[in-house]
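Input chain follows. Return structure tokens only.
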Amino acid sequence: MIERGDAPVALVTGASRGIGRATAEALLREGYDLHATYRTAAQPAEGLVALGQELGRRVVLHHFDAAIPGSLDQLVRDFSGVRLQTLVLNAGAIEFEDFPNYDEQIWDRTMETNLSANLRLSVRLQAALTDGGSIVMVASTDGLIGAYASMAYAASKAALMNLTRSLACNLGGRNIRVNAVAPGWITTDMTSEGSSASASVTPLGRDGTPDEVADAICFLASRKASFISGATLVVDGGYTSSDQIMLNEARHVNTDNS
């Protein structure tokens, strides 16, 4: 499958919804031809095809389940002859855990989906990446702190940030930059009832949007970030700059002084 030579080409995994969908749309608007993966149903991703037609860009959809090695093998085969400028590794999963009755299969599935699949794609698609291209990983601020009921997810995202640094070292000789974004609380369909108070402890006073993370990803993929590699850009409205206990303390002080 040979791409047209008049546009850079990007692959975005997990592009049917949330941050992946917003990133795919943003790259199309920036003039990329797009390859986009979906895991369950193609229908949510088909809107990308319509947007591509509207913008005069080519969109190719691929079924891909990061937890299944055979699915990854097929995706790599699909890129025979393709020249990629940008690879956005966004596909991921979270499963919540009951620590006293810990299910080790959750750990295995999460590590395969969020970490190992991203390593395999980076290594096996490196020949498809053009010199001077870019890889952007989608990590999480969960990788910067400990977790209670999502240890596998947090550990996978912490490892993904370290993998970003290692890939930057190994691909830098071809002027391929590798960076990550670490979103904080972003309003997507992964938002749970348990996280509904996140805005109240975020300095900007709100959750972020997928479009705001997509803007950060597009920046890291662009020439404006030409000397940035091995970095993780935190996109969290200041959430990881704040301590909830100190915030509560300050609120009590302000109440006492009012």
